User: What shape does this take?
Amino acid sequence: MGNLFGRKKQSRVTEQDKAILQLKQQRDKLRQYQKRITQQLEREREVARQLLRDGKKERAKLLLRKKRYREQLLDKTENQITSLETMVQSIEFTQIEMKVMEGLQLGNECLSKMHQVMSIEEVERILDETQEAVEYQRQIDELLAGSFTQEDEDAILEELNAITQEHVELPEVPSEPLPVESPGKAPVKARTRQAALVAAS
Assistant: This one.
């Protein structure tokens, strides 16, 4: 149980991240040093001015030499800061490039798997079947649109006449005699049956 709850999670910080952090820390230290040197230069300039007012020219000259040396250190510090920032930017950009390459590799693997599932021959077969289906549908559309030849029209009329001349089956005439009614009005059922026989004859 102790090992289960005491297990450390795997850190997601890479070596590149550690390098970037160290470079930024060094850059910040150099900036602090740069700021401190700048403040010292301002103070030394004021001291040199005061020494000149007091007539201590040699001491003022010596202090200005020291100030000049610090200015050179300040220039070197600025160059070092620029180098560190350039290095940080290079590493960060390289990390972006690596992620892009990983994405491209993953995409290529997916495409490769898709190509294995569907080969070029399979794609060509599907395209051919699709073209055949489109052509067949076009032919049907042309027929339905009325693009018949004269031969087609003659065949259609001939079939229509044949259907018209076919024997139509009539209902059987009842063999039982009709009921005798008064000379007034015949029943409704009798009138309906008589009308059907007349129409059929």
The CA atoms of residues 38 and 60 lie 18 Å apart. The helical segments are 2-6, 15-53, 57-117, 120-144, 150-164, 188-200.
